[in-house]
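Handout, section B. The chain below has 397 residues.
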Amino acid sequence: MTGQFERLLEGISSAPRYNVHSAFDSTARTLDKTEQTWKDASARPGWQGVSAQAASNQFTRHSSNIAINARILRSARDIIVEANAILDDAATKLSELPDATIDERIKTNLQSGLSVLIPGFGTISNAFEFMTFGRELTGRRESAAKEAYRNIENKLNNLAYELTGLNGNAIVTVGNSQDPKKKPSLEDILKEYQVRDDPDGMIKWTPSGFNAWIADRLGEKIDPQDMTSFEGFLLDGLRPWDLKDFRDIHDNAFSEATSKFPLRSDPTGLAGNDDHTDAFRHAYWNALMTKRYGIEWASTYATAHEGIPGNQAPREAMDLYNNQIGRDIATANPWASEEELARKVQEAVSRGDMVVVTKDGKLGWSDLGINDVGHPDENFTLDGNPAGKFLQRGTTS
């Protein structure tokens, strides 16, 4: 399990390196020779008179333009070399992150009632101390990743300004805003934001193994929860402190949703579903999961959550699309606090960036009035097979 900044660092370090700087350098040298040729022609056009002077002036302008292009190519070469150095630095910083693994013998000894001495930390003798130890380890790693990412982000932003000087156009700096993509059509959202039912169906999930032992020692009673088989598989892969954070994020998303968008009166008894409250809850839930676990795990889990057999297409499309908006907001604002993320998600709902279900059971943008939302028609069918494919086990770490 990796945090948001570790994932961001991984993304930078895995970017492809390009060796086009050598081609730029070669072209610049060719232009140098061409510039000299035009300079020579300017000094000795080969004839005399007014036309010779005009030709000489023209040759001089050609020489000057070629010289400018050569300088631009050399500047581009230097920028590419520096960009490659930044990518290499990110890979180095990623490899130097503190280790956050916990020896299995520690778990075994704890379950056997033994105390464990951890050099540099102290003695662990109970579940609470183990949770504290685990959080500290992962916190050290994410803090180091956060610091490394900030330094690399600053370097990349400086590089962006250099590029601005080359082409005269504004460059979007790292992590400062969402990609201003044009909104897709509601018809495309309905078609594309679908997943197949979980092939293994639904389960009653509770923590197992060491996680169950920790929960029991901490006095946390976790009742069996209905979820897709793949959801359970992903939750089984979480460490005890990750699982505790997951539950807190879930509860936070629900409470914040009803705070930002209070439940409306709904005679169907489905208030908080398919409406603005629902849109905020899903987006904020995904933003928080992205901030805590990174975008890959958040996307995998949120998609698995929609693999419920028989989930109606408008509702599924709404949830999947709003999930993505929440992850996009978190990714575009890596330094934002939970409160800031909640505000940005609220603004996105009010602005109409998300989708809800309309009175006639179709998709609509979230700037609809609260009295204009409804629920999907129970008999709604989506022609053809869903475009999305259910994620397979083993696609996340």
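Note. The radius of gyration is 29 Å. Compare this with the example in section A.
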